[in-house]
Amino acid sequence: xxxxxxxxxxxxxxxxxxxxxxxxxxxxxxxxxxxxxxxxxxxxxxxxxxxxxxxxxxxxxxxxxxxxxxxxxxxxxxxxxxxxxxxxxxxxxxxxxxxxxxxxxxxxxxxxxxxxxxxxxxxxxxxxxxxxxxxxxxxxxxxxxxxxxxxxxxxxxxxxxxxxxxxxxxxxxxxxxxxxxxxxxxxxxxxxxxxxxxxxxxxxxxxxxxxxxxxxxxxxxxxxxxxxxxxxxxxxxxxxxxxxxxxxxxxxxxxxxxxxxxxxxxxxxxxxxxxxxxxxxxxxxxxxxxxxxxxxxxxxxxxxxxxxxxxxxxxxxxxxxxxxxxxxxxxxxxxxxxxxxxxxxxxxxxxxxxxxxxxxxxxxxxxxxxxxxxxxxxxxxxxxxxxxxxxxxxxxxxxxxxxxxxxxxx
Length: 410
Prior knowledge:
This protein has 410 residues and is α/β, with parallel strands linked by helices. The protein has helices at residues 2-15, 19-32, 151-154, 175-183, 215-229, 260-271, 276-285, 331-343, 363-371, 396-409, and strands at 36-37, 48-53, 56-61, 69-75, 80-91, 94-102, 115-122, 128-138, 167-169, 189-196, 201-203, 209-212, 237-243, 287-291, 294-295, 318-320, 349-351, 375-379, 381-383, 390-393. It has two domains: 2-78 and 213-409, Zn peptidases (Aminopeptidase, 3-Layer(aba) Sandwich); 80-196, Aminopeptidase i, Domain 2 (Roll), CATH 2.30.250.10. The chain has ten helices and 20 strands. The strands form four sheets. The protein has a nine-stranded mixed β-sheet, with helices on both faces. It has a five-stranded mixed β-sheet with strand order 11-12-20-19-15, covered by helices on one side. The chain has a three-stranded antiparallel β-sheet with strand order 5-6-9, with no helix packed on it. It is globular, with a radius of gyration of 22 Å. The two termini are 22 Å apart.
């Protein structure tokens, strides 16, 4: 069973080079499990349904009016390089296109990789058309060491504006002409993302690791959808929300700071005929699990980790805590999820940052603040976060699904 699940994750990763493809893939999985796609919230919600909006999707499995909510949140976006609206460059005879850096990219990880292009084009009618070109289209070549003799002493220094534009030919067409040739659509506008075309792979002496692009945070997206798709009916209502734009602050209509999740929560309350007081009571009895990958201890940089809170691969998901509220987990939430994990026979680790090391954040505190529903932050430990290619334990994603399944059913 675990092997089948892991194969499903690897297929998901290979099929989802952009948030738009994540949403499409989530819809395919949910539809296969009997969830109904909807485009309107004005009619009664189906018992099992989902709503897709650009790079975000929210899905639900309704319970009874007397039940509480079990919410799982994750994000569809990953740091990457995105083609500019007017990208065409000719430099010393090389055809290039200009890119904009999205999120906290580890720039060096994108050098000397075979890059495809994927995203969506929007036509004059406003209709979106997904595309993905997984063959090598572009490459960002690193400067030869003979022309940068000091690199071994001073380290690699990259200018975000000058050094990250890929080459893609010697006499290439305009980027829009190329888009027309591969999509058949006259694009009025487009979202075009670069991605490493290397497929997801199992690596290690006993294939104990999974290497792929976009593990942060598509492991969590895949696990959340798998948990919801296999959920059984109960008094509680289950919601999975996959937001876009987490890597740049979540402040958009599709981000966690936007109204997407709160609108669904409110609409479910309307359908259950809950008054203002009853809505408050439901929120107090509900839980949100915010899933976003955690930092595994790095064997070459152990001094960067808090020694008693440094998760290891294949030892279970990590509960993420921070006293300064960069993560939302409280002692009550930690106790609740520990009980859920014990019941599911899933080991649970703990991640806390060093006092002298800045702590990242995620959608947990935002969702907690926006909804008034207590959130718990959790994630699969990984290395190379924000690299063009990341690595995690090959057993942890399956354990995350089991934990999420029991979180919904608990």
